[in-house]
Request: fold
Amino acid sequence: MLVISPHLDDAALSTHALLDRTEPADVMTVFTAGPRRTLWTRWDLLSGFADSDEAASARLEEEHRAFSDSPHRLHHLGLMDRQYRGHPAGATEETALVDWVRAWVDGHDGVAVVAIPAIAGTLPRPASSGQEESPAGAVELTANGPSGLPMLPRPLRLAAARVVWMMLDAALRIRSAWPFTRPAGRTASSRRKGRQRWPAIPKLRQPPVSHEDHRFVRDTVWKALQDFHGVTVVFYEELPYSWSLGADSEVRRISESSSVHIDEKRIRVDRVAKSRRVGAYRSQMPVLFSPHGPLNRPSGLPAEERYWVARFAPAVQVTPVSSTASSASQAQQVPARAPRPGRTRTLNRVSA
Reply:
């Protein structure tokens, strides 16, 4: 089985049910490389890193720590994250991803299970026409400092990043332990009458929109696997994006536009074990959205993970029952909907 993770924490956050097993699986993360030039981004700062160089190395260490007690094999494609690229993934990234996935499937004789994102989360706001794209909140660190400002020494930049990270982490812990929670459906006037108070959620921690890197990975791999009829594709719903909107509409759109049969599966997870693995990504905990508390606590995680299993069905040649030459010469291509027994056994073992 191959689990394709767009970023270094996505597999742990969203596919614990697939990876909670003793049989080794391959976990390939697509966007793992830092920029060629040192950058200073808002996400890295809020994650407690002084710059992109420190973030790239620390995130890789977190990944290895998260899977250190598992038999799974980790692979890193080494493409650059969206926050560093400054533009959507293009032909270069697509070629690298397709070549790697096709080589992996060929190495398994074309019969395998491949898990890819389903695309949860609300749709991002479209950019204005003619608007020039740039890395999100990124500035280059040069001798003159970011944006021409005086360059702070690295120890001071690191200290500032750590302070921001600790403030976010403390705010999250205080809010998760606060006795009052925001009641659903309450109006502003009723909240004033109740006089309940709770710590404000930082703007960054609002329910997230779907990530374009996730969409790129899903669409690229899904297209590349169309020719491999022995492959079973599993779409997984991504956390924390699923807190804002599930992936149902995205999966429905794929099912309606292709000749595949897709079944939904809900699998309960061991939230204690999952929280331990997710907690290895310590830098990301304060900045990842969760309405129920930190994601490195069992109470902050959903009790179930959702998957959709798609089975490619090769076309079957069917000879019509007819004595006329015209009808006998026309063969119909009928997709076989029923899965083969071998693949059914594999999926039952994966989802057990």
